[in-house]
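Open question from group meeting: does this chain pack into something compact, or does most of it stay loose? Before anyone orders reagents, we agreed to write out a predicted structure and look at it together. Recording both the input and the output here so the notebook holds the full record.
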Amino acid sequence: MDLQTLKYAEEWISRQVDQGEFPFATLKVYKLGQGVVSNFSKGFMDENETKANEDTILRLASNTKLITAVGVMICVERGLIQNILDPLKEYIPSFANMRVKGSNTFGEGTVKAKRDITIQDVLTTTAGLSFGIAYNQYPEFRDKEILKTMNLEKYIDMIAARPLHCHPGERWAYSSSWAVLGRLIEVVSGKSFPDFLQENIFDPLGMNDAKFYVEEAKANRLASLYTKKDRKGIVAALGTLNSDSKFDAIPQPVRPGSNGKLKLVTTQRLNSFSDKERLLRVPNGGGGLLSTTKDYLTFMTMLCDGGVSSSGKRIIGQGTIEYMMINHLPDGKDIAQMGGDNFGGITRKGQGFGLGGAVITNPAIFGVNASVNEYCWGGAYRTFSWVDRTAGVAVFFGTQVITDDIRYRRVLRNLVNSALMEKSWPSRLARL
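Structure tokens returned:
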């Protein structure tokens, strides 16, 4: 890794913070054989101007998904799941006899699904499921008495009771798939989803701050959440409950950020992320985790190192990781060809989907300086991670701001990947 060239990435991040694009930013870059080569932080984690660092606790949002997928594949390695091509109904019976909606949103005129949903469908988000966190689809989420007894089993059964948006395997669509995978882990392991992750991923890796809630003693380390000042209707867009509910994940913005471009959304000290006060206690495998930049890079480093922790403990097999990081979409299609073009505000041509996360199938078409099969995903609050096993690089970028614009991810990738030593290029290009 050319450390001087890597400084360009840090300088770019610094400018974005100064210009009000991010309230703060943390970047950690790991290079195989060199260790952590960048540990950069800039900006303030809250309205009190507390400096952000690698130990600032972040809402991982959809960066939870990669961890959930690894959990599922650990179950496969141990024989708890026989084959990812197995029908999902064999493990979660509520997914038997699925129907597909017609033109009517509420399900009238539905037809029988052409085939059963497989576990692979769920891992590649081609199962036909909807985005279950959109609470307007689930009236149950407006009933506080129901929420008090809601658990992951009930939540998934509620999802299964809705008609699919398309036949399994026909389209790629962002969905509640990872919540289903969390329940799958519970069914096959006999442990709660959080306990399984704790025992098999977090504890072995030393990820001490990775949890589905904020411990009271650590509440002062949870970053505040910001949004752009000109962003309107953000609460409705994220499907939160009304303001009198304790499960009000994103309350209305209340005051401007210090740089004038951002608004404070919430500090989230001890409300919906508190284990004592949160009303909805469903651990969401698609977006419920909180952790730090330091902890999450530890996870990504393990993937880069072939499934082994820094202490030498095997978490998952190298062959399994390689299998996860190839395109599993039907007929080698990319996300755009499967109906997911312009997902997240950018075209997905040249980007396929592996098991649990996106993979680059053609860097030239996708428009990034990267290797084939680079494995990545990001979160709603602009966290972003990728691992390039060909180049031996793992990266995590952390901030806490809600915005539709995720073009920065391409810029960041290009800046970091440009710092790769020249000797790595022949092997990278050979994969094209």
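Observations to bring back to the group:
Residues 241 and 248 are 6 Å apart (CA to CA).
Residues 231-259 have pLDDT under 50 and may be disordered.
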